[in-house]
Write a structure and sequence with these properties.
The chain is an all-alpha fold. Helix content is about 65%, strand content about 0%. The radius of gyration is 22 Å and the shape is globular. It binds iron/sulfur cluster (2 copies).
């Protein structure tokens, strides 16, 4: 685990502890602190220890001088944007470290910066094959274990808190928001497709997901060990990197479509093309948490007034003010609707029993899914790639000739 990964992990855990503490759940804060210190003690890994001390120091300092953020006593939209930007910043630093490592390998020099294993999150097919290997063969891949861990972590977020990963964590979603904002500066109009076109377009992401699942499910179990030991798998991340760094005409055309979609309509890429969004959309049906409207408090039924503020705030164009429960696979649990509602009891992200989850609890749940599983995997020895640098160095020299 690199220092940037350790730092992000420890900051996330300290933020969870802080939110728990200020929400009155002192036991939650104590458990989180105990887990953080235990992780350092068990691993005896100094970057993790330094990251813990740094995160603890910053948390205490911010709690002293600017406590609002660390208490989570900020508006929903501010908390969500803060969460998205910090995770994107961490990913950006990870990407720089990864690029330096890859360039040094290509130059035949022993890298002085470690490869951040979290980049394996961008290998969903490898992750799917590894999960299949674990389930069907009890075979735990040692080449890119983080791919399986991160895929499992994201799947877990879908089961627990719908598509909150898309709405609160995904850097592509954040980039899409900026692109859409830029487009709106020059072309003010909402360029929404008609309903008859919107639905088939939304199905495209499910077709892409189907294609990815076909590759994973279609691979015979007997072939999996050969694939996982093969040279292609050893440099699958570098292959993926080359795909983006040296794009061909088809790749460039795909990028163009993605950028146009993101700029054309809000969440255009998430809505129409992202297979992760499709996967989380399916899982979100199983999530016990949903946006629920309480008719007893909603201005429409309670006061006979006209109100559709929640619907107008929804970036996914879901009609909320006529429903009691939002089950749509497009709901990203962003809670913009809750933030826009003038009656605090009328709308919430809640269980069927009516028990509400605040934006602070949602952040805790999301961060726990995204960070506790990788930490556990790291402590169990199922995170760091066991492929030596010299093998990757040899393979990267002949990367074009390494096939499946
Ligand atoms: S229904 Fe609410 S939480 Fe879901 S996407 Fe729309 S605004 Fe966000
Ligand atoms: S914004 Fe609130 S009060 Fe208005 S329709 Fe939606 S849930 Fe009801």
């Amino acid at each position: 685990m690199t220092f940037i990964e350790s730092l992000t992990l420890m900051f996330a855990l300290m933020y969870i502890a802080s939110l728990n503490y200020w929400s009155g759940k002192r036991w939650g804060a104590l458990v989180t602190l105990f887990l953080s210190f235990s992780a350092v003690a068990v691993s005896l890994y100094w970057p993790l220890g330094i990251a813990l001390v740094a995160a603890l120091f910053v948390t205490i300092l911010v709690n002293q001088f600017a406590p609002t953020e660390f208490k989570g006593e900020i508006k929903i939209n501010v908390l969500r944007q803060g969460c998205q930007h910090l995770l994107a910043l961490s990913l950006f630093m990870v990407a720089i470290q990864y690029c330096i490592n890859a360039i040094q390998l290509k130059q035949g020099a022993t890298p002085w910066l470690m490869r951040p294993d979290v980049v394996d999150a961008f290998l969903p097919i490898a992750g799917g094959i590894e999960l299949k290997a674990i389930i069907s063969l009890n075979l735990w891949d040692q080449t890119h274990p983080a791919a399986a861990v991160m895929l499992a972590a994201v799947l877990l977020t879908g089961l627990i808190c719908k598509r909150a990963f898309c709405g609160w964590a995904c850097p592509l979603g954040l980039a899409g928001e900026y692109l859409y904002g830029l487009r709106k500066r020059f072309i003010k109009a909402e360029l929404l497709p008609p309903a008859w076109l919107d639905w088939p377009l939304r199905m495209l992401k499910y077709l892409l997901l189907l294609a990815l699942c076909y590759i994973v499910i279609g691979m015979p179990s007997a072939s999996i060990p050969y694939y996982l030991q093969g040279n292609y798998h050893k440099i699958a991340d570098l292959k993926m990197g080359m795909f983006f760094i040296t794009p061909g005409i088809i790749t460039l055309a795909c990028f163009g479509v993605i950028l146009m979609l993101a700029a054309w309509r809000r969440q255009g890429f998430c809505r129409y093309l992202c297979p992760y969004g499709a996967m989380l959309g399916i899982l979100s049906f199983a999530s016990p948490l949903k946006i629920r409207r309480n008719k007893e408090h909603c201005l429409i039924e309670a006061k006979g007034m006209k109100c559709d503020k929640c619907t107008r705030a929804c970036p996914a164009n879901i009609i909320i003010h006529t429903q009691t429960t939002v089950r749509s696979d497009e709901c990203q649990a962003c809670m913009r609707c809750v933030s826009a509602c003038p009656k605090s009891e009328a709308l919430g992200f809640s269980l069927k029993t009516g028990h509400r989850v605040s934006h602070k609890v949602l952040v805790v749940l999301l961060l726990l899914c995204l960070f506790a599983l990788p930490l556990t995997a790291y402590l169990s020895g199922f995170w760091h790639s066991q492929t030596p640098d010299d093998i990757r160095m040899q393979l990267i020299q002949v990367i074009d000739r390494v096939g499946h």
